[in-house]
Amino acid sequence: MPIYYVQHGEEEREWSVIRNGEGLLEVTDPEGVTHVVDALEPQPGRLHLLRGARSADLDVREQEGVFHVLWRGHDTEVNVLNERQRRMKAAGVGGNKEAGPDLLSPMAGKVVATPFAVGETVEEGQTIIIIEAMKMENDLKAHRSGKVTKIGVEVGQAVEIGDVLITVEDE
After folding, report:
1. Does 45 lie in the same domain as 99?
2. How far is 171 from 159, CA to CA, in rounded Å?
3. What pLDDT is stored for residue 147 in this prediction?
């Protein structure tokens, strides 16, 4: 069942959404209550929702990864992430320079290679470390350009989600 994490302000809540055999959405809210919703997008950015006898018309636009939802004259900003996006955000990967100098592990696994040494310069997007997880090698890319100032792991070491792998500071 697909899980989505909806952040509104500082609050994050977990929702699940599946499409049933009739083409309707079964939406389970954070309290565990399931609602059957009929959703129609007659044009991009416009949603008609029907739940029982209640209906809602929403204008939805995405801007830099944030959704702006206009409903009943109120503009609300929400961030919606699936499980993978949430895990990657928590690990500070995905080209997010605001995450700081530390590259955090987005997965549990074993370090296979660290192609750079402390003091070397890397460019954003270069493979900076390789982690084996579930018998697959995963190339993790530098999340920013700069100088490698610390390698927090060794080849062969087991890592968990969120472990600091490598620190890349601005030059």
Report:
1. no
2. 27
3. 96
Task: Tell if the pTM clears 0.90, that is, is over it.
Answer: no
Mean pLDDT of 82-101: 65
61 belongs to a structural domain? yes
DSSP 126: S
Burial-class residue 165 by CB neighbours within 10 Å (0-12, 13-18, 19+).
buried
Q: Can you give 17-79 as a three-state secondary structure string?
A: EEECCCCCEEEECCCCCEEEEEEEEEECCEEEEEECCEEEEEEEEEECCEEEEEECCEEEEEE
Domain that holds residue 134: 92-169
CB under 8 Å to 99, separation ≥6 — which residues?
A: 92, 93, 143
The pLDDT, as a whole number, for residue 119 is: 96
Kindly state whether residues 151 and 110 are assigned to the same domain.
Answer: yes
Cα–Cα distance for residue pair 84/4, rounded to 1 Å? 10
- Nearest by Cα to 17 from 125, 101, 121, 5: 5
**Does one domain contain both 60 and 96?**
no
